[in-house]
C-alpha cells in the first residue's frame, strides 16, 4: 500500500526554477520536498558528469574526485554548487532524486495529490509514494522542438539538446564532423560543448534572417541594459566561432538529410522572411551528424492534469505571484514561457516564497520583469515562421514513433473534414506512440491547423497525458491511489 506523505511545500523539478523555489520556501520557514527525476539536481541547464565521476585529460574517469573542469562547461557553476550544497545540507528540505511523477489527482479543496515512483526509470521494484502538499510548485521545464524534414529519422540526426546532454553528462560527441542548425541562441552553447569534446563543427545554420533578428533584438536597445551580462556570453561564443573559423549563416535551414545507414550529408537552403525555402539556393554539406533545434515547448502534462489554465502559446497562465488557476498550485521556469535561466531563477524564487506564505522580494520581481522582456525579444528574433511547412513533403515522417507521414496527416484531414485533434490522432495514430507526442505533438497540430481552416477545435490536446510517463501495469496494480481526503491517514 502506498504511503501518503503530508508536506508543506512540494516542488516538482530540480532545475534552476525548482531549486530557487525550494530555497525560497525554506527561507520563509516551510518544510520542503524537492522531487527530481534525474540522479542529481541542476536540470538540463546545469547537467554535469554523474556523481563519483571526474575528468582526466578530457575523459571521464571513476577516481571519485571532484571534476575541477565542470565550471568551464557551465555559466553560473559556482552559483549552482552553492544552491545545491544549501539544499542538500538542510535537514528540513528532502531532496528525492530518481523521483518520477506519473500522475496527479485533482481535488476541489486542496492542491492535487502527487503520485511518484522512485528508482531507475526502467528498473524493477521502484518505490511508490504519494504526496499531499499544502502548496505545490511545478517547475517541470520544457521539451525541445525540432521541425521535421526529409531524412530527419536517419541515425546521426540529433536534437541539439541531446548533443548537449551527451557532451555535458557523458563527455561523448555525437559525431566527428557535425552541423548545428535550427533557431535560437541555444545553438551556440551546443557548438561550444561539441568543440570541448573534440568534434569538428562544420557550421551553424540559423533559420531567422537578418530582418527577423534585427526586429527582435535591435528595437529599443536600452531595455537590454539590465540583461547586459547576456552580451558577454554571446561575445564568448562569437570568439569561439571565430577562433575555429566556423561559418555562421542566417536565413537558412537544413531541409534534408541524406544517407543509407546513417547521415552522410545534409542539404541547406536559404529561406525567405517567413522561412519558405528559396529554390535554387540548395547547398550540400558532408557531415556524419547534424544537431537541430527550433526552440522549446513548455512541459505541461502535470500542470494540464492538475487543471491549470494554459495560454495559446502552450505555457501555463500565472498571475504576478506565479499562482496558476488551481488554488495552491504555482508554476515557474520554462513551464510559464520559454525565457532562460535568469527568468527561471526569478520566477522560482517568487513561487517558492508565495508557496511558503511570504511576500516576494522586490529584487526578484524586478529580475522577472527584465527577463520577461528578454524572453519576448527572444521569441520575436528566433520564433518559428509558417513557411517551414513547405520543406516538409508528403513523404516526410512526422511522427517517428508510429511512422506517420505528413502526407497521411494532410490526406486524413482533407478527406474527413475533421477539425477535432482527438479524432485525427486516433485515425492517423500520430502522437500515440511511446513518446506520446512529446517530439511531434506541436508539429502535428501545426500541420493539421493549416489544412482545415479556421483550425483545430481542441488545440493543445497533445500535451494532455493523464499518465505522464511510461509505467508498467504491475506498478499500477501495486500502487494504491486515492483522491479523497477522507482516505488519508
State the gist of this model.
This protein is an alpha/beta fold and 489 residues long. The chain has helices spanning 16-27, 70-73, 77-88, 160-170, 187-196, 210-217, 229-243, 301-306, 341-355, 362-382, 406-416, 421-428, 441-451, 473-478; strands at 3-12, 32-36, 54-56, 59-61, 93-97, 99-105, 113-118, 127-138, 142-144, 157-159, 177-182, 200-206, 248-250, 252-258, 265-270, 283-286, 289-293, 296-298, 329-331, 397-399, 404-405.
Describe the structure.
By secondary structure, the protein is an alpha/beta fold. Helix content is about 30%, strand content about 20%. The chain has helices spanning about 15-25, 70-75, 75-90, 160-170, 185-195, 210-215, 230-245, 300-305, 340-355, 360-380, 405-415, 420-430, 440-450, 475-480; strands spanning about 5-10, 30-35, 55, 60, 95, 100-105, 115-120, 125-140, 140-145, 155-160, 175-180, 200-205, 250, 250-260, 265-270, 285, 290-295, 295-300, 330, 395-400, 405. The longest helix is centred in the C-terminal third of the chain and has 21 residues, at about 360-380. Mean pLDDT is about 90; it is low at about 50-65 and about 480-489.
Derived from helix and strand composition plus strand pairing, the structural class reads: alpha/beta
Distance between the ends: 12 Å
- Average per-residue pLDDT, rounded, comes to 89
Give the % helix.
25-40%
Strand content: 15-25%
Categorize the overall geometry.
globular
Low-confidence stretches: 52-66, 482-489
Give me the count of strands: 21
For the largest beta-sheet, the strand count, sense and barrel status come to: 7 strands, mixed
Count of alpha and pi helical runs: 14
What's the alpha carbon Rg, rounded to whole Å? Answer: 23 Å
Amino acid at each position: 500500500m502506498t504511503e501518503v506523505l503530508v508536506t508543506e511545500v512540494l516542488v516538482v523539478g530540480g532545475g534552476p526554477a525548482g531549486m530557487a523555489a525550494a530555497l525560497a520556501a525554506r527561507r520563509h520557514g516551510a518544510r520542503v520536498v524537492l522531487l527530481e527525476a534525474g540522479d542529481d539536481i541542476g536540470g538540463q541547464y546545469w547537467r554535469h558528469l554523474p556523481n563519483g565521476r571526474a575528468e582526466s585529460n578530457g575523459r571521464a574517469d571513476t577516481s571519485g574526485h571532484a571534476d575541477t573542469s565542470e565550471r568551464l562547461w557551465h555559466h553560473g557553476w559556482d552559483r549552482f554548487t552553492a544552491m545545491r550544497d544549501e539544499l542538500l545540507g538542510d535537514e528540513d528540505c528532502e531532496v528525492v532524486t530518481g523521483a518520477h511523477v506519473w500522475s496527479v489527482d485533482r481535488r476541489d479543496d486542496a492542491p492535487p495529490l502527487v503520485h511518484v515512483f522512485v528508482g531507475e526509470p526502467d528498473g524493477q521494484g521502484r518505490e511508490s509514494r504519494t504526496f499531499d502538499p499544502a502548496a505545490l510548485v511545478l517547475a517541470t521545464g520544457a521539451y525541445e522542438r525540432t521541425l521535421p524534414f526529409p531524412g530527419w529519422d536517419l541515425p546521426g540526426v540529433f536534437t541539439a539538446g541531446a548533443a548537449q546532454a551527451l557532451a555535458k553528462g557523458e563527455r561523448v560527441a555525437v559525431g566527428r564532423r557535425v552541423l548545428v542548425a535550427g533557431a535560437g541562441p541555444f545553438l551556440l552553447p551546443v557548438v561550444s560543448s561539441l568543440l570541448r569534446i573534440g568534434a569538428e563543427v562544420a557550421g551553424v545554420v540559423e533559420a531567422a534572417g537578418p530582418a527577423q533578428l534585427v526586429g527582435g533584438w535591435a528595437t529599443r536597445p536600452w531595455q537590454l541594459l539590465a540583461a547586459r551580462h547576456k552580451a558577454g556570453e554571446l561575445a564568448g561564443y562569437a570568439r569561439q566561432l571565430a577562433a575555429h573559423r566556423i561559418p555562421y549563416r542566417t536565413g537558412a535551414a537544413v531541409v534534408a538529410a541524406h544517407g543509407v545507414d546513417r547521415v552522410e550529408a545534409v542539404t541547406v537552403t536559404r529561406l525567405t522572411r517567413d522561412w519558405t525555402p528559396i529554390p535554387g539556393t540548395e547547398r550540400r554539406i558532408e557531415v556524419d551528424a547534424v544537431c537541430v533545434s527550433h526552440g522549446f515547448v513548455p512541459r505541461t502534462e502535470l500542470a494540464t492534469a492538475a487543471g491549470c489554465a494554459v495560454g495559446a502559446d502552450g505555457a501555463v497562465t500565472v498571475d504576478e505571484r506565479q499562482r496558476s488557476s488551481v488554488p495552491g498550485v504555482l508554476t515557474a521556469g520554462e513551464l510559464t514561457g520559454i525565457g532562460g535561466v535568469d527568468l527561471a531563477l526569478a520566477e522560482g524564487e517568487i513561487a517558492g516564497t508565495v508557496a511558503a506564505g511570504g511576500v516576494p522580494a522586490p529584487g526578484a520581481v524586478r529580475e522577472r520583469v527584465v527577463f520577461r522582456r528578454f524572453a519576448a525579444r527572444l521569441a520575436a528574433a528566433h520564433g518559428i515562421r509558417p513557411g517551414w511547412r513547405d520543406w516538409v513533403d508528403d513523404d516526410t515522417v512526422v511522427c517517428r514513433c508510429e511512422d506517420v507521414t505528413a502526407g497521411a496527416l494532410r490526406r486524413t484531414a482533407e478527406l474527413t473534414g475533421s477539425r477535432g485533434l482527438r479524432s485525427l490522432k486516433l485515425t492517423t495514430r500520430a502522437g500515440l506512440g511511446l513518446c506520446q507526442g512529446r517530439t511531434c505533438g506541436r508539429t502535428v497540430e501545426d500541420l493539421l491547423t493549416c489544412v482545415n481552416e479556421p483550425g483545430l477545435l481542441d488545440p493543445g490536446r497533445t500535451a494532455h497525458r493523464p499518465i505522464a510517463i511510461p509505467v508498467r501495469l504491475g506498478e499500477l496494480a501495486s500502487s494504491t491511489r486515492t483522491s479523497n481526503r477522507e482516505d488519508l491517514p
